[in-house]
Amino acid sequence: MSRKINFIVLSILVVFCAFTATGYQELSTQIDKADTAWMLVSSAFVLLMTPGLSFFYGGMINKKNVISTMLQSFVALGVISVLWVIIGFSLAFGESLGGIIGNPLTYLNFKNVGIEPNPDFAPTIPFLLYALFQLKFAIITPALITGSFAGRIRFRSYILFMVLFSLLIYSPLAHMTWHPEGLFRKWGVLDFAGGTVVHMSAGFAALAGAIYLGKRKIEIGEHANVPHVILGTGLLWFGWFGFNAGSALGVNGDAVIAFANTNIASATAMITWLFYERMLGRKMSAIGACIGAVVGLVAITPAAGFVNIGQSVLIGFIASIISNWMIHLQHKSGIDDTLDVFPSHGIGGIVGMLLTGILASKVGLIYGETTTFYAHLIALLITAIFTFGGSYILFKVVDILLRMRVRPDQEERGLDLSQHGEQLE
């Protein structure tokens, strides 16, 4: 029976969707065609980031776990898409319940999510397009977590964790940060494109997973394919323009500023990583260049539309050095975060969030304002406790229900064979 339950649940959800969905009304409100075109493109850009992440992670793991590691990212495209339509979007952006989470009935099965704009979220584009753009963020967040436990988690247990994380961790955090009535939003917390919602939540969940699952029996060994890591980084960098510039929700000055800041912060972080490594007597490696570039992308994300080009250079520089230092510190700590998700995404998100509170135009600490910075400190503390503690509990719950870690013999064979019956030639 346990082998059939996944298909049975999916069948029930398909029937529910088919018989409860509402049709689209004819568009009566004028939409901005340029904004709509840009947001369609941006949504596609952000979706491309998840396959890019697959290559990025898959190239860094050993050859026994390439397929499983890449699939853990790729499968989120399917699982989260269905979940988002049914209830995820409503939990994140539905009618606010205390500023913490949305009413699950507001947009259940995309009810009332049509081609009319919604002035509370994006007044110049169809509301359906806004919901789909937000979906891409919801997809990549649990995919980011997978790098921390690559090589030692059962696939179906991971899928259950992903579902629970999306509903109970991601959706409330997205609501608090981006909904007009959200708790953090009303405090004045600034997160232009997901430094808190995406990267900090994924980073702390990754740390919880690494601690809960414990060390691998088999060390990572040689990277399976460094060119794939470079390819993945390129796809991530490309997609990140939609991630950040798309979060302006239109063709406007904020989009241009975010686009420029995204590029220069990543470029600065990559160069900083290489030169810092060389200064310490280490090789200037391709893997290091790629990690540095991604750290820069992560750090600029919350600040992308709120800082100038010089400040984005500073953000990339600072984040690169701190994340580099944290990676080496974490290795000494004994925490087995396989692909260094927490030092890269968690720490990168924290640095970006704090520097946003310091540098944000007109409201940052350097402009003599303290409210935003203090709000960011409080939100950071709440986010850390909520995402780390909540994720740790979810790992424990899933472990009780399905057992999360593969057996030692399966880990020895590699997850490609033991979980999927496939292997690289």
UniProtKB/TrEMBL annotation:
Transmembrane segments: 7-25, 37-58, 70-93, 127-146, 158-178, 190-213, 225-243, 255-276, 285-303, 309-327, 347-367, 373-395
SUPFAM superfamilies, per the entry: Ammonium transporter
Record's subcellular location: Cell membrane; Membrane
GO CC annotation terms, alphabetical: plasma membrane
InterPro entries hit by this protein: Ammonium/urea_transptr (IPR029020), Ammonium_transpt (IPR001905), Ammonium_transpt_CS (IPR018047), NH4_transpt_AmtB-like_dom (IPR024041)
Membrane topology: Multi-pass membrane protein
Limits of the Ammonium transporter AmtB-like domain: 37-423
Pfam families: Ammonium_transp
KW Membrane (keyword) present: yes
Keywords from the UniProt entry: Ammonia transport, Membrane, Transmembrane, Transmembrane helix, Transport
Name used for this protein in its record: Ammonium transporter
Organism, as annotated: Owenweeksia hongkongensis (strain DSM 17368 / CIP 108786 / JCM 12287 / NRRL B-23963 / UST20020801)
